[in-house]
Design a protein that fits this description.
mainly alpha, 77% helix, binds phenylalanine
């Protein structure tokens, strides 16, 4: 039972829920979801996204947490031990490896983008953005991206805070941070949505997000929705297995997974409802891409009364959301190192963080010095992609979905029904059978179709 773990445990159910929701809710919800919705056709994308969550991502989330709790170790060793316990090949630990490597690679660029959020937070509260206009907003964002030193410093500050929290351990670090930041995040988001509903063009924003135009559903929209679902739920990155290993026995995993999924989706939708009404009120473009919240929103903040406070709160929300995700990206790596080296946690957190910062410099440089450097440019698919774009593409569109597919196959076909129903404490027939069907058949087929489309692109 729980005693086998070298890591310690969450103090209880709430701590795990805050940590897992904190990992899921991040830049993916507040930065990526609104702009992808904007560029992928609004309501049609939202509909497909929700279908992907329910049919593909949620079943895999349940499996990944269960594998972690059964194994009681870091992702790599939990996959290995669970496979061994089922009389299967130890090579399944490769799935854990894939996750840990994906988490490391993700952390290298996640922290750079979180650095933009910190820089915008600082600028907003210092009043530097109050006089911004259509003609200066984009150049301002471009100037930040063009300055490798500034980017590297913010990236370093963000990574430093991440390391500081992880170094303090599960209960002393991660748990304390999330139990403070998550409620704060919900409060700020609630306030922002109410503000937007009262002062923004709420009807236009709402329509944009929920009116479904079926003609907009294309193969690309489906690919974007699957990728976003995996990214947003932090799936297949070893995190949910790692956090699951710290989970007390008496917690019902399926119920927890449903709540995590609903909270994550709720935050993404609310972020959209906070952002789009302002975008429409000010006659700005909803499909402006990754710059949506950095270029477009500050214009709305500059235009409104109390914009400094509103904008400050918005970027603070973004930083909190990013931090509760970045600590979850560092933890699977530290957890693995903890099992293999006798070093102190703090030293390993520092080492891994420093490594991720250093590798992240390639992302920093991708926006300026190495902007024109396309290392895989000889392949048609990767033409014009910078190192950052290649890393993001490899992790989000390949490693996470492949990892998810392998988890579905492993849990669906290689772990016995008995083990699963015991671990999940799920004995009532129908729902359990539906879950297994989704895991064994629906999710793998959906993912394989997506890969096929990606390759034949
Ligand atoms: N889920 C996080 C977000 O939405 C990103 C993330 C992906 C974090 C994978 C950890 C692992 O921002």
């Amino acid at each position: 039972m729980a005693g086998a773990s070298v890591h310690g445990h969450w103090s209880g159910r709430m701590a795990f829920m805050f940590a897992a929701i904190g990992s899921a809710v991040g830049l993916g919800n507040i930065w990526r979801f609104p702009y992808v919705t904007g560029t992928s056709g609004g309501g049609a994308f939202v509909l497909i996204y929700i279908a992907c969550l329910a049919l593909v991502a949620l079943p895999i989330l349940i499996a990944e947490i269960a594998i972690g709790r059964k194994g009681q170790k870091s992702a790599v060793n939990s996959f290995r031990d669970v496979a061994k316990g089922e009389g299967r090949s130890e090579s399944w630990r490769f799935v854990g490896w894939l996750g840990v490597i994906a988490a490391f690679m993700l952390l290298t660029f996640y922290s750079v983008i979180a650095g933009w959020a910190m820089s915008y937070f600082a600028d907003t509260v210092m009043g530097n953005l109050t006089a911004i206009s259509e003609s200066t907003s984009k150049p301002r964002f471009d100037a930040l991206l063009a300055d490798p030193v500034r980017l590297a410093i913010w990236h370093g500050i963000f990574m430093g805070i991440t390391v500081f929290i992880v170094a303090r351990g599960i209960q002393g670090g991660l748990e304390k941070a999330v139990t403070f930041m998550m409620p704060a995040l919900f409060a700020i988001l609630g306030f922002l949505v109410i503000y937007s509903a009262i002062y923004g063009d709420f009807v236009a924003g709402f329509k944009f997000m929920f009116a479904v135009d079926f003609s907009k559903i294309t193969g690309d929209v489906v690919i974007a929705a699957v990728g976003q679902a995996f990214f947003s739920l932090s799936l297949a990155s070893g995190i949910m297995a790692t956090y699951g290993a710290y989970l007390p026995r008496d917690i019902n995993i399926p119920r927890a997974a449903v709540i995590i999924t609903i909270a994550d989706t709720g935050v993404a939708l609310l972020a959209g409802l906070a952002i789009f009404p302002l975008v429409f009120l000010h006659g700005l473009a909803p499909a402006s891409g990754p710059g949506l919240i950095f270029v477009t929103l500050p214009l709305a903040f500059a235009d409104m009364t109390g914009g400094m406070i509103f904008g400050g709160l918005f970027f603070l929300l973004l930083v909190f959301a990013a931090l509760t995700s970045s600590i979850s990206l560092l933890e699977p790596i530290v957890s693995y190192l903890e099992e293999h080296h006798g070093w102190r946690r703090s030293r390993m957190a520092m080492l891994a963080g420093a490594g991720a910062w250093a590798v992240g410099l390639t992302t920093v440089l991708s926006f300026n010095v190495l902007k024109g450097f396309n290392p895989l440019g000889m392949f048609a698919q990767f033409e014009g992609k910078t190192i950052f774009e290649l890393t993001d593409y490899t992790v989000s569109n390949i490693m996470l979905p492949v990892g998810g597919l392998l988890i579905a196959i492993f849990a669906g076909w290689f772990i016995s029904k008995k083990t699963l129903s015991e671990e999940l404490d799920w004995h009532d027939g129908v729902l359990f059978e539906i879950w297994r069907l989704l895991l064994r058949v629906v999710a793998p087929i959906a993912l394989i179709v997506v890969f096929y489309n990606l390759i034949s692109g």
